[in-house]
Four helix bundle protein (Flavobacterium profundi), 122 residues
Amino acid sequence: MKSYKDLDIYNLGLELFYIAHLYSLKLPKYEMYELGSQLRRASDSVTTNIVEGYGRKKYKADFIKFLTYSWSSCLETVFHIEKINNLYPEIIPDDLELIRRYNELSAKIFNFIKYVEENWKT
């Protein structure tokens, strides 16, 4: 692995960020800077923390800490998608598929954290 860009969790997280970002811009104007901003920040945080953690990979504990932040942001993103779906069901037509994909990403991040805990050499 030469770069964080080689990580499946990074690539999937970035793909999902772009999807979530576009949906957040479809919210009513009064939600754009509230719920929309929360969704954008949480979904962006998933990949941002992977990148920052990778930059600290020399320090196993730091790497795990940032991967855990990424995992938490993934869970937060699902929560915001669920709120949007309940308040504005027309915004994300296939919300269950997006949630399914974020849950898949969450599991992958969790498994990668376990891998780093058990196998990472600094």
Summary: The first helix runs from residue 8 to 24. The CA atoms of residues 94 and 119 lie 37 Å apart. The mean pLDDT is 96. The helical segments are 8-24, 29-32, 35-55, 60-87, 95-119.
